[in-house]
Amino acid sequence: MFSKGAGNFFGSNMFRQLSSDSRTKASEQWFKKQLEYSGLFKKISQKELEKSLPSVRVYYNNHYLKSPHDALIKIPAINVAGDRAVVFQDGLANEGKPDYFAKIPNGHPYLLSPRERLLAAKKIVYSDSLVFATGGYPNTNPLKQYNKPFFASIFSLAGANFEVPHQHATVFTLDQFNQSLHKSTHFSHLYDGVPTNFSDAKKAIGDYDTHETMSRIRVGLFTLLGRRTDGSYRPTLFKDSSIIFLTSPYFRHQLEDVSMLLSAVNEKGLEAGKPALLKATAVGMGFYAKIDTSYGIQHLLFPYYLRAYKKLLVEQSYPWIAEIEFPIFDEAQQEQFDRVFEDYKGPIKVYRSERDVLKLTEEEIKKYTPCILNPSDAFAYTGNEWGYGSVEAMIGNNTSLRIDQNPHTNPLLLDPNHHVGVKIKADYSTEFSRGSDLEESSGLKILHR
């Protein structure tokens, strides 16, 4: 069992090389205790880890990141409720206000600044992880153990975070508080042909709710979502003070992330010699899609997420992806999926289901390369909170993900030889760079433009 074999594995030199200072040791010890308390140590053998740990790989968009190194380590252990419930890597809870993280400067030794955090989301962490159970929600989807655990390729991708005001709201919304967008940032190419200040955006959209490049956010039959000059959000009857969401830049952002994902999944299918079956969760459509934790905008975001898949599957080639299954449980989102894909004519089979993201049949496991999209957090350990409070936590509890995709238990995560730079071209095709092709740097790993 794990308790004997894995103890020797974690005591190896490969594991100890991260223990260079007291801060790292405290973080390492706290994390290992969480793994022990969770029971994960008893569910995974050393032999299984010897397969899963070396498989780790980090794909990153090299327009935004020079290296994913800092994005993988300058993060809390747990972060939920829009920065309101945060546990640092040493196990201590943040006792400050949520805006504590809004004030982190660039180049901070232990945490990402708001700007660096935005860039850190433009990556995907991948591993071939052991899946031993599904579910975990007692009232809707009880925990079920697999008689025959299997390995699946898990791709952890963070969506746009509107839950925290200083994150993607600063990139994709204009309002009385966020009056203009800086064209000199890494995101400036997303704004081509789109107004970048509130005054021009209001003129472009006029009295309408929607425009070809932007939209107002309706939160009731007669009310829109507005924002005061002090930054607070509230419903409003007046269009002049309502938030304008930049739909075209958001769609381009989704095209970048989904292109990187599909290319990585296609590569995995090729390497495995079996075409991939991708279980595509609705990344960024849960807690992240609630502005300031209160105002849900899933109805606005989800169609653009789906359209990104549709466009890429029609215009690009992914010969090693056989099927894409979207687990969708919300009725409104099911209807949105049906509308988006009703005229789809791409070569890859696309469908929706109400199956758990970790649920696969023995026939599917044998026929395909199982690939799971984990909706992760860019500012927390992969797996995030313990328990079953989110899809990511459920995946973390039912697989070896928390061990495979954490540098305290898998130092290979920080090895540049396991990093893949991804160039997204103008047509959203991709080009990979790895190993000796990547520029080496030992300083701050986030590009400054």
Defining key terms:
449 residues, alpha/beta, globular
Descriptive overview:
This protein has one domain (2-163, 250-437). The protein has helices at 2-10, 13-16, 22-38, 46-52, 69-73, 114-120, 169-172, 198-205, 247-272, 298-315, 331-341, 362-367, 391-398, 401-404, and strands at residues 57-61, 78-80, 85-87, 123-134, 144-158, 173-174, 210-211, 214-216, 224-227, 233-236, 244-245, 276-279, 290-291, 295-296, 321-327, 349-353, 369-376, 419-424, 430-434. With 449 residues, the protein is an alpha/beta fold. Helix 9 (247-272) packs across helix 10 and helix 10 runs parallel beside helix 11 (331-341). It is built from 14 helices and 19 strands. Helices cover 30% and strands 21% of the residues. It has a nine-stranded mixed beta sheet. Strands 6-11-8-7 form a four-stranded antiparallel beta sheet. It has a two-stranded antiparallel sheet with strand order 2-3.
* Envelope shape: globular
Q: What is the rounded distance between the termini?
A: 50 Å
Strands of the widest sheet, in order across it, are 16-15-12-17-5-4-1-18-19
How much beta, percentage-wise?
Answer: 15-25%
| Total number of domains | 1
Indicate the structural class. alpha/beta
Number of helices: 14
Q: Which residues sit in consecutive blocks of at least 5 with pLDDT less than 50? A: 1-20, 439-449
Reported for the largest beta sheet, the result is:
9 strands, mixed
DSSP E strands, number: 19
- Residue-averaged pLDDT, rounded? 92
* Rg value: 21 Å
Fraction of residues in helix: 25-40%
Protein name: Substrate of the Dot/Icm secretion system
Organism: Legionella waltersii
